[in-house]
Amino acid sequence: MQNNLALYNSLSRKKEPFKPLHPPFVGLYVCGPTVYSDAHLGHARPAITFDLLYRYLMHLGYRVRYVRNVTDVGHLENDADEGEDKIQKKARLEHLEPMEVVQKYLNNFLKNMEKLNTLHPSIEPRASGHIIEQQEFIKSIIEKGYAYEVNGSVYFDVLKYSQKYPYGKLSGRVLEELQATVRDLEGQDEKRNLFDFALWKKAAPEHLMRWPSPWSDGFPGWHLECSVMSTKYLGNIFDIHGGGMDLQFPHHECEIAQSTAALGKESVRYWIHNNMITINGQKMARSLGNYITLDQLFNGEHPLLQQKYSPMTVRFFILQAHYRSTIDFSNEALQAAEKGLQKLLKATATLKNLRPSSESTVDIKNLQAKCYEAMDDDLNSPVLLSNLFEGVKYINSVNDSAEKLTAGDIELLGNVFRTFVFDILGLTDEGINAGDEKLTEGLMKIIIDLRQEAKNRKEWSTSDKIREDLKKAGIILRDVKDGVEWERE
What is the rounded distance in angstroms from the CA atom of residue 437 to the CA atom of residue 431? Predict the structure, then answer.
């Protein structure tokens, strides 16, 4: 298949035709989680965005090496070069070992990623497993003259780097703005400039996660791991680097500087950033305390939730918006996504019942072409879904005998839906089962209420008959202190 894919490159701030460096191989690196709490809705956005890209690249015939890191050391509070390590702080609060915290919350993240039907990355390296490589990278930067050591810590010299390379090119920041806005934080007095950032930090006596180095017993800076692990597994120059828009500055800006200083050239050809999920117009994030975990979304146990939502409803909700636009959380939006998902999946299930005619009155090849055009246009999933719902109309019309399709066009339409709904968008028919479950729960509430009304009228025979008839149908009722519970036999 001819590749017409165009991607928005955050570095050039425009759509560019995607041309991999070494086709058919594609190197994809995505910033993964810092594992110190349960995965939340904000984590689902980049996971689904880059799963969509991963799936489409493979569909186009590319061999993709997808690397997603795990930050398990060096990410300090407030994303600064001071304060307590986020994982160590969690370990102290929960009375656990730091790596016990990492494993606990990494397990939760991966469990929820599977529920959302995101494919596993090719490699999922941890920062703590690449300490030696990070130290060697620092040595290279020092040798090139772009870093300096003070009291056992090593800092990147942004001012010296900017004399040769354009620091701030990704985020659009300039040094004068940084000088005016950077905060005076503890420990920054040992830096040459307030906007310099740590490559290695000397560990305080109480700091648990530490490693020996030529400079001190300490730990690597947060930004360093991505420069090191991306180039280790994808080469000094690779195709795509992804992550959330909130990482453009300082994280990705610092990555560019580190890699360029160490290697003498930029590593990344295409930078892709997904936008945020907001709640009441504010970014949903752990640091702001306004987040909803994925577990809470799936079980409905959060004050902001009117009901529980299936993983496929959440995936569909995120795919309804273009990855570069914001999504504002609301129960109404999720409920609308649930209905849209049901409509799409039920039409897909109806495909196998369509009866062929001797002629076609709708153009399925054109529908297929429009679906590819949407994906080639910077992964435009909302337009793709709009085209698929046009296909839903065709399916329902043919099923009602209002339109006609030949056997060949029915087969082609089935292929379009299997390809785009399941293979590329990554949806599953779990949404249909979730809808049936919701219907069952609603019907059971009606039956239980009718039985309670009979009991209130002391119509015991009617109450008993309802219980016995439900038992014959495989439903067990139990009268408990706070009402009635039911379960399948």
Answer: 10
Tokens standing for 418? 């299997």
Report yes or no on 189 lying in a domain.
Answer: no
Q: Are residues 478 and 391 in the same domain?
A: no
Q: Which tens digits make up the pLDDT trace of 1-13?
A: 568 999 999 999 9
Share above pLDDT 70 across residues of the chain, in percent, rounded to a whole number: 94
Q: Are 138 and 221 contacting, i.e. CB atoms less than 8 angstroms apart?
A: no
Q: Across-strand partners of 487?
A: 476
Segment holding 79, helix H or strand E: none
Residue 403 lies in a domain: yes
The model carries a pTM of: 0.87
Q: Rounded to an integer, what distance in angstroms lies between the CA atom of residue 132 and that of residue 55?
A: 33
Task: Identify the sign of the CA torsion 108, 278, 14, 179.
Answer: negative
For 401-426, give the DSSP string: TSS---HHHHHHHHHHHIIIIIIIS-
Q: Are residues 41 and 175 part of one domain?
A: yes
Number of Cβ atoms within 10 Å of the Cβ of 114: 12
338 and 455 share a domain?
Answer: no
Helices then strands, each counted (H, E), the chain: 16, 15
pLDDT in tens, 285-340: 666 777 899 999 999 999 999 999 999 999 999 999 999 999 999 999 999 999 99
**Of the candidates 254, 244, 242, the residue with the CA atom closest to the CA atom of residue 178:** 254
Contact, 309 vs 338, CB < 8 A?
yes
410 and 455 housed in the same domain: no
194-215 pLDDT, tens per residue? 889 999 999 999 999 999 999 9
DSSP per-residue letters across 81-131:
SSS-BHHHHHHHHHT--HHHHHHHHHHHHHHHHHHTTPPPPSB--BGGGGH
Q: Yes or no: say if 150 and 47 are a contact pair by the CB < 8 Å rule.
A: no
pLDDT attached to residue 435: 55
Flag whether 395 is in a domain: yes
Q: Does some domain include residue 282?
A: no
Work out the average pLDDT over 332-353: 95
Q: Which domain holds residue 81?
A: 6-147+160-182+223-274
Task: Tally the domains of the chain.
Answer: 3
Nearest to 229 by CA among 153, 137, 139, 299: 137
Q: Lay out the sheet containing 238-244: strands in order across.
A: 63-68, 25-30, 238-244, 268-274
